[in-house]
Specification:
about 425 residues, alpha/beta, Rossmann fold, Tyrosyl-Transfer RNA Synthetase, Structural Genomics Hypothetical 15.5 Kd Protein In mrcA-pckA Intergenic Region, Chain A, 6-stranded mixed β-sheet, 12 strands, RNA-binding
Length: about 425
RNA sequence: GGGGAGAUUCCCGAGUGGCCAAAGGGGACAGACUGUAAAUCUGUUGGCGAAGUCCUUCGGAGGUUCGAAUCCUCCUCUCCCCA
């Protein structure tokens, strides 16, 4: 996907820049300062240095933590210098912001592996050729203990405990490890090291961003402006979208996957997703959310818009069609993964259905497979020409394909005409025999 | 350093000798219904080719007992109070 280069249509005067940048923010600490910085930048033709830190704590960037990245992109479009910090050191600590327990410390290897995939993904949003990319191990690795002490002396325990997440944990008697107190200082020190003029982050980052301001002052630098963006709820609808909760939509997930996950959010969440996770303008969003539009359709537009943002128009269109096909018309999806059955598993050309479910990865044990069957969630039918699978469509006679007996032995057809195994509404596999 | 409380299944959390593969909630999965992987309702949620006076699981290692998540000893980790 190519990134839009809109810089020539973009307002260059500081006031309009500020206007553009303010859209979709929660706090700007130092808004006056920001305007001043923008003015100076115009006057002296010096781009602002805009910092965003990404901690590679998991392999995926999701549409929630992509929000500040898009904001960084905005700055980039306005001609400012994006500074992307890959927090390979901070990732080892784990940001305590908004978390109610100590995060497991990651190993160097895990972090580095994630860092690689992060850049791959950030490419989808940022123009990396115009982005300064820095790893914070660069300075933390060689930092001596005396320097760490000096840094730590700049923060008080009382101030730390003012933080909501820490004070809650403290009140609830949930352990707080000392190294977690170091995190904001590390992030703040990053700002000093890259001489950041503006730092971006989700609202839960406000404290960390403010520490950056303080530290910069201590180190004789002009303090950065802190600009925060909203947090997005995960697809479960109540908790913040996060990797560890597994309630996220990753930006490099398959379009079909993104589409489906977006369709699974509750209706009330649509507005927020429209605003924060798509490129649609306010007018269009209002239109889609009006009572004239069926929520189902609005949500499909939402899902499409999210896919479009990361995979382009064509992928979005395809994902939408695919979804309708499977969930509205109850037909087979376009792409069905194979489950390979080793010939040795067969007895007289037959395979125990329970075994097949396990081989396909649809059940982790025979017992679970039996349960699925007992619940009526398992179907097996020939590949050719079966329109699924609904009692409401009598011509399909769907239920003749439902597996009802966990002791069934399924004859496995030759490779040319494989069978389709379906579990639940959306898990499919094509059964293939190989030696 | 002294005293007290605690660690339970994917998560939270009940359980203080057998009725415990372990309440309840969350999550997840399945079914019904539908507008969809929304909402709602129902069910399932350790393993074993389903079966048993079976095996594994209540922080770890031992012990008491016919029998231990539950009692004892030591260990690891956490929280609280005092210093």
């Amino acid at each position: 996907m190519s990134l839009k280069t809109t810089s020539d249509t973009i307002p260059q005067d500081p006031e309009s820049q500020l206007e553009v940048l303010k859209r979709g923010t929660i706090d700007i600490v130092g808004e006056e300062e920001l305007l001043e910085k923008l003015r100076r930048s115009c006057r002296e033709n010096m781009p602002l240095r805009v910092k965003l830190g990404l901690d590679p704590t998991a392999p995926d960037i999701h549409i929630g933590n992509a929000i500040p990245i898009h904001k960084l992109r905005k700055f980039q479009e306005l001609g400012h210098q994006a500074v992307l910090i890959i927090g390979d050191y901070t990732a080892m600590v784990g940001d305590p912001a908004g978390v109610n327990k100590t995060r497991p410390m990651l190993s160097r290897e895990e972090v580095m592996a994630n860092a690689g995939t992060y850049l791959q993904q950030a490419r989808k949003i940022l123009d990396l050729s115009r982005t300064e990319i820095v790893y914070n191990s660069q300075w933390f690795e060689k930092m001596g203990f005396s320097e760490i002490l000096r840094l730590a002396s700049k923060m008080t325990v009382a101030r730390m405990l003012e933080r909501d997440d820490f004070s809650k944990r403290y009140a609830a008697r949930i352990p707080i490890s000392l190294h977690e107190f170091l995190y904001p200082l590390m992030q703040g020190y990053d700002s000093v090291m890259v001489r950041s003029g503006v730092e971006l982050g989700g609202t839960d980052q406000l404290f960390n961003l403010l520490v950056g301001r303080d530290l910069q002052r201590d180190f004789g630098q002009e303090p950065q402006v802190a600009l925060t963006t909203p947090l997005l709820e995960g697809i479960d609808g109540n908790k913040k979208m996060s990797k560890s909760l597994g309630n996220y939509i990753g930006i490099i997930e398959e379009p079909a996957q993104i589409f489906g996950k977006a369709m699974s959010i509750r209706d009330e969440l649509m507005k927020k997703y429209f605003v924060l996770a798509t490129d649609l303008d306010d007018e269009r969003i209002a239109e889609l959310l009006s009572p004239d539009i069926h929520p189902r359709q609005a949500k499909a537009e939402l899902a499409k818009a999210i896919v479009r943002r990361y995979w382009g128009e064509e992928a979005a269109e395809q994902a939408a069609q695919e979804f309708d096909k499977v969930f509205k018309a109850h037909e087979l999806p376009e792409e069905i993964p194979e489950v390979v059955v080793p010939r040795g598993e067969l007895k007289d050309g037959k395979l125990w259905i329970v075994r097949l479910l396990v081989l396909a990865g649809f059940a982790s044990s025979n017992s679970e497979a039996r349960r699925l069957i007992a619940q009526g969630g398992v179907y097996i039918f020939p590949y050719s020409g079966v329109k699924l699978l609904r009692p409401r469509f009598p011509e399909a006679e769907a239920h003749q394909y439902r597996v009802t007996d966990p002791n069934d032995e399924i004859p496995i057809a030759p490779v040319v005409a494989p069978q389709i195994l379906k579990v639940g509404p959306r898990r499919f596999a094509r059964v293939v025999v190989k030696d």
